[in-house]
Amino acid sequence: MFNLILFGPPGAGKGTQSEKLIDQYNLIHLSTGDILRSEVAAQTELGLKAKELMDRGDLVPDEIVIGMIRSKVEASLDANGFIFDGFPRTVAQAEALDTLLNELGTSITVLLALVVEEEELIKRLLNRGKDSGRADDADESIIHNRIAEYENKTSPLIGYYKEQGKFKDVVGTGSVDDIFNRLCESIDVLTS
Ligand code: B4P
């Protein structure tokens, strides 16, 4: 299995690039943000719990997202591999993912980190907020909170995956196609 973590701060383009990568490499796309938003839309118990946190730009508790990912992975064991988009976001989530994949006889192949400056992130998210209807894109102070959550809780994962020799950064600015080509170059080296 080829298991990719697409990593980066909010608005780095993880969702945008995942859409293209799943077609190119025939992988299953698991976005915790998308799964949580569908739970919110369906007004499930989990969605009702998550909504308030997401609207504030806070992370949702680890046990909720870990449980969601476990059931999605176990439902697709015959896949070529997975793109984990927006997951893991804490060291506890990364450890749980390693344990889960180990149980299934596989592991993370690589983490590709999209590098984008804060000013550009804010611009992209406010721009999406004009028509996304997402409360967490509509307000600059919430976007700052999301970036702070990333700095405090998610960026330590860089060290976690560097220690495993699985970290690679990729320039995340420029056109969507240019960034896609850079990601493909990194993946092709590992799969050829
Ligand atoms: P996510 O849904 O993961 O959202 P994101 O960080 O905003 O998105 P992404 O980086 O994918 O950006 P995108 O491609 O869309 O998380 C939302 C919330 O869910 C979190 O705040 C948290 O509350 C919760 N959550 C999710 N996962 C969790 C977890 N594991 N643990 C706890 N809580 C969790 O791009 C953004 C915009 O930029 C788009 O409008 C796009 O069109 C534009 N764009 C992309 N590439 C561009 C480019 N090259 N140039 C110009 N614009 C570009």
Which descriptors would you attach to this protein?
192 residues, alpha/beta, Rossmann fold, 5-stranded parallel β-sheet, 59% helix, globular, binds BIS(adenosine)-5'-tetraphosphate
Topology, pairings included?
Layout: E1 2-7, H1 14-25, E2 28-31, H2 32-41, H3 45-56, H4 62-74, E3 81-85, H5 91-103, E4 110-115, H6 118-132, H7 140-154, H8 156-163, E5 167-171, H9 176-191
Parallel strand pairs: 1-3, 1-4, 2-3, 4-5
Helix pairs in contact: 1-9, 2-3, 4-5, 6-7
Which CATH class is shown? Alpha Beta
Structural class: alpha/beta
Strand composition percent: 5-15%
Shape: globular
CATH structural architecture: 3-Layer(aba) Sandwich
The value of Rg in angstroms is: 16 Å
User: What does the main sheet amount to?
Assistant: 5 strands, parallel
Count of β-strands? 5
- How much is the average pLDDT? 96
CATH homologous superfamily label? P-loop containing nucleotide triphosphate hydrolases
Poorly predicted ranges: none
Chemical compounds bound to the protein: BIS(adenosine)-5'-tetraphosphate
Strand order of the largest sheet: 2-3-1-4-5
How do the helices and strands follow one another from N- to C-terminus? Answer: EHEHHHEHEHHHEH
How many domains comprise the coordinates? 1
